[in-house]
């Protein structure tokens, strides 16, 4: 439990948050295209195969996402799936579709795009502002006119054209860097909790899995 409460590693958090937008775009594109094509061609049975492929792809992608969360954020997410029943494929597919984890996996990848967009925007905005302010004493002399004008070149409320004048801005940039580090870890931690809520087992699922394993152990003992 202690590992769940501590902040995720900073470097992994940055990489994780920046990856979410491209992964979210890819996931949203695949989900919407396969869903539309599958529903549109379901009457000729081609769509059924596409939807079945989508279900398998989502469950497989969810396994990879749990691994990504663990590798970058140091948060382990238990698998929520019960073993599939032996026998006909129809029974196995029925178990997959009745499993709420399948639909929670699907929901996670649908929300990954808007969530990734928000995270990417916040991270890039805070870090670009922080680094620009912190480095102002170094690069202001290479700006057009050899000075930095706030808030813009056309509206010059403040002018920074010397290292001394740039130092207060650099101090503000250092403060923003500290805020950016805290924001990055907070966003990553929040995303990890969301991933655990959608990709991990619920309390009811944990109980069902425990009962399943207890029954399996009893059957093995009887068979032995």
From TrEMBL:
Domain of life: Bacteria
Ranges annotated as spanning the membrane: 12-31, 37-58, 106-127, 166-188
Entry keyword set: Membrane, Transmembrane, Transmembrane helix
Signal sequence segment: none
Database matches in InterPro entries: Put_sensor_dom (IPR025828)
Record flagged with keyword Transmembrane helix: yes
Domain Putative sensor as annotated: residue spans: 16-199
Protein name: Sensor domain-containing protein
Native source species: Amycolatopsis heterodermiae
Taxonomy of the source species: Bacteria, Bacillati, Actinomycetota, Actinomycetes, Pseudonocardiales
